[in-house]
Amino acid sequence: xxxxxxxxxxxxxxxxxxxxxxxxxxxxxxxxxxxxxxxxxxxxxxxxxxxxxxxxxxxxxxxxxxxxxxxxxxxxxxxxxxxxxxxxxxxxxxxxxxxxxxxxxxxxxxxxxxxxxxxxxxxxxxxxxxxxxxxxxxxxxxxxxxxxxxxxxxxxxxxxxxxxxxxxxxxxxxxxxxxxxxxxxxxxxxxxxxxxxxxxxxxxxxxxxxxxxxxxxxxxxxxxxxxxxxxxxxxxxxxxxxxxxxxxxxxxxxxxxxxxxxxxxxxxxx
Length: 270
Ligand code: KIV
Fold this sequence. Notes:
The chain is of the alpha/beta class. It contains eleven helices and eight strands. It folds into two domains: about 15-240, Phosphoenolpyruvate-binding domains (TIM Barrel, Alpha-Beta Barrel), CATH 3.20.20.60; about 240-270. It has an eight-stranded parallel beta barrel with strand order 1-2-3-4-5-6-7-8, surrounded by six helices. Helix 2 (about 35-40) packs across helix 4 (about 70-80), helix 5 (about 100-110) crosses helix 6 (about 125-135) and helix 8 packs parallel to helix 9. The chain is globular, with a radius of gyration of 20 Å. 3-methyl-2-oxobutanoic acid binds near residues 30, 50, 51 and 221.
């Protein structure tokens, strides 16, 4: 099946913000390298170089040990492979702990990569840092709800917005991040009823992951949605292909062909 790419439009902050008014749902996908970024470039509205790469690419148990160097390396690769994409670099844990450190690191990201924006996790607690970044010309995407960088301080990955109190806190978080100048907010692992209230409470787009279809857009980790990650399947993930099985079948076929000498054939030799 061929994909007709006749509606590709390079995104910018204004178009992303307007998509909410125009009720155009936004599609974001992660990418960590040039090869896959090129495949997604003219299909997805935004590419996120998520710090999830620390788990799926570096094989670490969580995102906490991702470094800025690592994120810059992968973002350069993504921008090289997909120069037309609106690419967002996920600021890793510890790189935005106060205003000065955050700005210094964000400026480094802008100077060393072609990322269009950065993403930071946090709500009311991080609003003053986000404000400092946006008033210094850094485009910021927020991230509230289940925040993987808070895994140890929260005692695990917990779905948010189950109680009225937590739901109200999340709405305050979203409003604070919007007021701080963010252009969009990721809402992760939030009860869909709460995600709906958050989406209605703010004027910038919400991009959901595990937050129902009520947000202004969706984001998925590429290796989850293409079925390459086999350890477990979170409830909110849809597998659009069985990547792991297809790769194993192909490599198995290659090994068989090598063993029975049907590869390479005469057509494949000089
Ligand atoms: O790191 C990541 O991939 C993310 C998405 C899950 C939103 O932050």
